[in-house]
Amino acid sequence: MKKDAQKLSILIVDDEEDILNVLKLILTKEGYQVDTALDGKQALQLFRKNSYDIVLTDLRMPEMDGIELLERIKEIRPETEVLIMTAYASVESAVLAMKKGAADYIVKPFLNEDVMMRIARVAEHIKLKRDVEVLKQQISQKFEALHFLGNSPQVQQILTLIEQVAPTKSNVLILGESGTGKSLVAELIHKNSPRRDGPFISINCAAIPETLLEAELFGYKKGAFTGAVTDKKGLIELANGGTLFLDEIGDLPLGLQAKLLKFLETYEFIPLGDVQKKKVDIRLISATNKNLEKLIEEGKFREDLYYRLSVIEIKIPPLRERKEDIPVLVYYFLEQASKQHNKKIKGITNEALSYLLNYDWPGNIRELRNVIERAVILTRDEYILPHDLPEKIIKSSPSPEIGVGKSLKEAIEEYEKTIILNTLKFCNYDKERAAKILDIDLATLYRKLKKFGINH
After folding, report:
1. Both 44 and 155 in a single domain?
2. Do 168 and 204 touch, CB atoms closer than 8 A?
3. Do residues 20 and 12 touch, judged by C-beta distance below 8 A?
4. Dist CA 388 CA 334 (whole Å)
5. Looking at the domain assignment, is residue 140 inside a domain?
6. pLDDT by residue (tens digit) across 275-333?
7. Most buried by CB count within 10 Å: which residue of 57, 101, 289, 360?
8. What's the total number of domains in the chain?
């Protein structure tokens, strides 16, 4: 199968059955998935069921011609590429077809090689568009992480590590205090991996009673225990082809630790009450806010399981150790909360921001987000003021002087500079490509580069 043809589907529409048969034969040999229709009505019925990547249609057909079919297809699925075939070639019909969105125009009689070349060209175009969408998604996810995690050197190191480990199948252990963003890191690894189209199944090991946790993980057969009135797939099986995220793995009971270790040796398991083994293909990501090495010393966590889980370790530092992230996070959470609660908050005063910078944030990013949302809800002003913040934050901080910390304008500019720098790095400093991704014109990008002193 040719690379360009992989997984692409084609619908051929022509009122001459001989042409349909010939084209289907040669396109199928090229690796495309091909269906045929003798008229526009039949073609639309098939299209609504299958949403083809490419439609190759004759221009002149009874009842519905190729131009009308083209218009109807573009209404249903604009991204489908349509090629028009006709024995009645004219400049007018070609121009009309192109104006309506046709990708190409083929004159009958045609050479098979010519059709193959034109189809391959359209297939390559589809592939490029999909690659661009994946690229946009990856950049969007990276910027989402910058929004939610911050942009400090520590966070940049974490994002780099995510990019390195995501394409692999290695087990990952994420370490960090509650509220630091461990689940977001797990999702980013999954979304940037070859398993991105597979399921991402998450379970909090501390939130489910020990008696139910085994059944949740491994599933069970009807009658396996009291209350098991039907078969149920476990989360391990549901994650097949994707990623299983075990949050708070440090709370996993010792008995289940042994069963998880056995599973990780072969990726085979037996549901409760069953005798048949099942095999799955999953990637395991775990996270904990506990010191697993200390738990191992205390006999509460298996050392062999720890080494199996921690092929790659990602440590997320607490917010108190990277306070330079706070202004960017505050800006992001202000924007989110203002939209959510339909309020027009312009920013936060320097004094209020200083209190936030002086606080130690035991609940980390989660606590900061909740504090900002509360302030947005309660404030009667356009700016968040110190009296909008919880009393514990005010009391725990030394009384700041006005002007300490960064202004909202400075925080926004720092955030904007970081986004531009990361986009340039992603594009290998191709400024035209970076401008397109940032959705600004090239002149605007150059002005911002000069403003921020970026000389690449």
Report:
1. no
2. no
3. yes
4. 13
5. no
6. 889 999 999 999 999 999 999 999 999 999 999 999 999 999 999 998 888 888 888 88
7. 57
8. 4
